[in-house]
């Protein structure tokens, strides 16, 4: 345990955030293989008995139920979108290192992530249209949601490291419930700028058509997911939500 605590540095958590960018960009590219496929999100398309709502809700709820049984949510880095009525883990407990304050489990912004992903992001990066392949579409959505949720809730770890490094500054603000000061303390504008630049670059590199034996420039500038959309999504949602998580976590840090 002490080992993990010691290895936790601002550099190591930032490295993890950088690595997670790859997963996020790739998941968006995978989802963008399919058009919007609106029936996936339409409860009236999916008319099975039971109260699942849309097809995507069925896929997410049932997958989370299976993964809960397999122990996924015993790990404090994982957050379910539908935490109510999840079955208990059925595997022997794994001794995850206790790094976060236990009050952290109650910080969960997945409702917001769900809303932003489906209502703000999706229409911007997938083509309009309907190819009928809804089950695969929902599976790709789940993948996107899970990697985004993981990244955004990683804010808890980021905040924990920052608190340990600078508790003298954070403690008074936490006791005063001063969200504005906490937000100012944890904000690093140069880092945010670098994150946005890097995801733009990743989206253009990962999303290029790679051809062998064709030197034409025909595909230049054609990307599977618009790099500008990814960058804006990070700037407008991913980073702000991560910061929300950081503030919420810090407010509970002394509980
Ligand atoms: O790297 C940090 O220090 C973070 O807190 C993460 C993050 C981000 O979401 O990428 C959020 C806030 C900071 O202003 C910079 C970057």
From TrEMBL:
Give the enzyme class. Answer: isomerase
Cellular compartment(s)? Cytoplasm
**Biological processes annotated in GO:** amino acid biosynthetic process; aromatic amino acid family biosynthetic process; chorismate metabolic process; prephenate(2-) biosynthetic process
InterPro entries annotated for this entry?
Chorismate_II_sf, Chorismate_mutase_AroQ_euk, CM_AroQ_sf_eucaryotic, CM_II_prokaryot
This protein's record includes keyword Ribonucleoprotein:
no
PROSITE patterns with a match to the protein in the record: CHORISMATE_MUT_3
Key words of the record: Amino-acid biosynthesis, Aromatic amino acid biosynthesis, Cytoplasm, Isomerase, Signal
One Gene Ontology CC term in the entry? cytoplasm
The EC code for this enzyme is: 5.4.99.5
Q: Which GO terms describe its molecular function?
A: chorismate mutase activity; protein homodimerization activity
Q: Which reaction does it catalyse?
A: chorismate = prephenate
Domain Chorismate mutase residues, every copy: 134-246
Identify the metabolic or biological route this protein is part of.
Answer: Metabolic intermediate biosynthesis; prephenate biosynthesis; prephenate from chorismate: step 1/1
Please identify the protein, giving its name as recorded.
Answer: Chorismate mutase
Organism whose genome encodes this protein: Gossypium hirsutum
């Amino acid at each position: 345990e002490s080992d993990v605590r010691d290895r936790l540095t601002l550099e190591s958590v930032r490295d993890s955030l950088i690595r997670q960018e790859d997963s996020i960009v790739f998941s968006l590219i995978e989802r963008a293989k399919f058009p919007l496929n609106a029936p996936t999100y339409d409860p009236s398309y999916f008319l099975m008995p039971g109260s699942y709502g849309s097809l995507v809700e069925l896929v997410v709820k049932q997958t989370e139920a299976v993964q809960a049984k397999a122990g996924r949510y015993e790990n404090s880095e994982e957050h379910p979108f539908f935490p109510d009525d999840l079955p208990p883990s059925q595997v022997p407990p794994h001794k995850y290192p206790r790094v976060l304050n236990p009050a952290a489990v109650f910080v969960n912004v997945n409702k917001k992530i769900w809303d932003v992903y489906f209502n703000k992001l999706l229409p911007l990066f997938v083509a309009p249209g309907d190819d009928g392949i809804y089950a695969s579409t929902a599976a790709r959505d789940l993948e996107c949601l899970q990697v985004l949720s993981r990244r955004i809730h990683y804010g808890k770890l980021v905040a924990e490291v920052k608190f340990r490094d600078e508790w003298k500054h954070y403690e008074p603000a936490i006791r005063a419930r001063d969200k504005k000061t906490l937000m100012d303390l944890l904000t690093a504008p140069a880092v945010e700028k670098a994150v946005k630049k890097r995801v733009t670059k990743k989206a253009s590199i990962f999303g290029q058509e790679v051809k062998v034996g064709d030197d034409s420039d025909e595909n230049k500038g054609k990307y599977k997911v618009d790099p500008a959309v990814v960058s804006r999504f990070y700037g407008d949602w991913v980073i702000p939500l991560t910061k929300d998580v950081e503030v919420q976590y810090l407010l509970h840090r002394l509980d």
